[in-house]
């Protein structure tokens, strides 16, 4: 019997357990009918870039770069101001979130593909238009039949200038099918040795001193095949997942949650562990029992958080003078409580395009078991010693032909 079967359903239409929606042909057809439609913004949460919101975002993803955290450091930099971490637009609303179609069917963030055009600075106000661009049906070992949903978001500043464009992906799974499949049932919280902790702690303590920072990384000094200094996030704890919510400006309580549940009852339930208090189905990021109800072995991280870790790997390597033009990440495996994510990368190509000096990177997240959890790629615009290549303070004017649907 489910742990949620012990509470009766009250008169309001919010169940005593997460809804057990089914992936039917009819539900898929209705989801496909939404292709091309614009979605109402989720939130929005953080729209205004201020020294405080920019720093708090960095706290939520563990980024130590002073260019994104310190107003005085930014004032003395080449930009004359603090800059936002490239993934700060994510705080407006998590692109790719499960908010449309397939009622009662659980969703997981599956990754995103960002193209960045301009830096965000204190004083900027971000808006976004998000639209449905695709629906695919596939089979998986995790839950059998699944649905991939794609959305595209365009982010602009208060002047109407395009700041970023992102393709977001989520996967939808029947909760019961995922539980019954039990793909991850044998995974236990990892036990580290003292030597393991020494390695992790050393990487954390030395991360900021290994940042390129104000020491310009020139295009001519980069070699294909060279590796990036890895960074580590973990072992994952409740402080990490809760801290990310704070960094995103998220946190709904009491009447705000209740009214949201009345509008979208399939996304909320009355949890007996909270005396029947209403919780969002995504509470599995913080409650082990809820995670197991959707086939995950325990509390797990937020996908947008992990995507941001991978971006920090790149910004640490490229230095202040460079511009992160594109970053793509995919969530291939769950990152559960106690897991580490070692963010790694290497240079795969360097070339000149449209008078930009570009470097393509292969990046990936690897857990303590040696499993690749988060494959990805990135493209960086670097300064060049060649006087015929102009100095670029952002990546505008460069078209990388970002795909809409993979």
Note down, in words, how this protein is organized.
This protein starts with 24 loop residues before the first helix and ends in a 24-residue tail after the last strand. Helices cover 22% and strands 26% of the residues. It is built from ten helices and twelve strands. It has a single domain, classed as Thiol Ester Dehydrase, Chain A, CATH 3.10.129. A hairpin with a 2-residue loop joins strand 10 (341-353) and strand 11. The protein has a ten-stranded antiparallel β-sheet with strand order 1-3-4-5-2-9-12-11-10-6. It has 406 residues and is of the alpha+beta class.
H-E order? HEHHHEEEEHHEHHEEHHEEEE
CATH architecture annotation name: Roll
Q: Describe the largest sheet.
A: 10 strands, antiparallel
The strand order across the widest sheet is 1-3-4-5-2-9-12-11-10-6
Q: What average pLDDT do the residues reach? A: 89
Quick one: overall form? globular
What is the percentage of strand-forming residues? 25-35%
Could you tell me the CATH topology label: Thiol Ester Dehydrase, Chain A
CATH superfamily heading: Hotdog Thioesterase
Quick summary:
This protein has helices at residues 25-32, 51-61, 66-69, 71-75, 175-181, 194-206, 238-247, 254-263, 288-293, 303-318; strands at residues 38-39, 106-116, 127-140, 144-156, 162-173, 231-233, 268-271, 277-280, 323-330, 341-353, 356-366, 372-382. The chain is an alpha+beta fold and 406 residues long. Helix 2 runs antiparallel to helix 7.
